[in-house]
Amino acid sequence: MLREGSAKSPKNSGNVALWLTSLDDQPGLRSTATRPAPQRPRLTQKDKKFDPHILVIPVGTAVEFPNHDPFFHNVFSLFEGKRFDLGLYEAGTSRIVHFDRTGVSYIFCNIHPEMSAVVIALTTPYFGVSDSNGKIRIANVPAGRYSAQVWAEGVSAENLKIVSRDFTISGSEQSLGVFRVVEDSLPAAHKNKYGRDYDATGSEYPPKDPK
Q1: pLDDT value at position 38?
Q2: Which end of the chain is more exposed for a tag (fewer CB within 10 A), N or C?
């Protein structure tokens, strides 16, 4: 059955992740380790952006990183969650990362500092990301007791903990209610993969022909 909720933020109601963890001791409700994704998810690089910006996946999922820009990218994540460095790869090529540990991975490009994305790997199959209206839909959630957790950029760990709650879903109840998210933390400026500041003038690889 489809379960719906909404995440309300004063600035942006989109890209808020919500997931449900079963509190009942029922087989098959706690782990997604043996449940492969129906198709390989993608974090596409296009117009110096990652699409989607927020990707939520079951732990153990392999994610494809195709480069659809006419220049090189160097995707990396060296902070939390899964750590990796894909190196330089050109237009029309792709790389794959296996997210084999739970947590939040912050994704960047070593060439273009404006590019960023977030991958959240979970052990529950019940998750969703809000649309531009703040709506979140999670399919096939059985009746039972659950803990709901929320993640959003610009929200401190303390406020995310306040938003989290435990509740019971009955066979006829389809609403998860409203989760009000308060943005109280500015995203920190990140360094490149070497721990240094990016080139202030910007750069592309290979360099553009001055002619």
Answers
A1: 64
A2: C
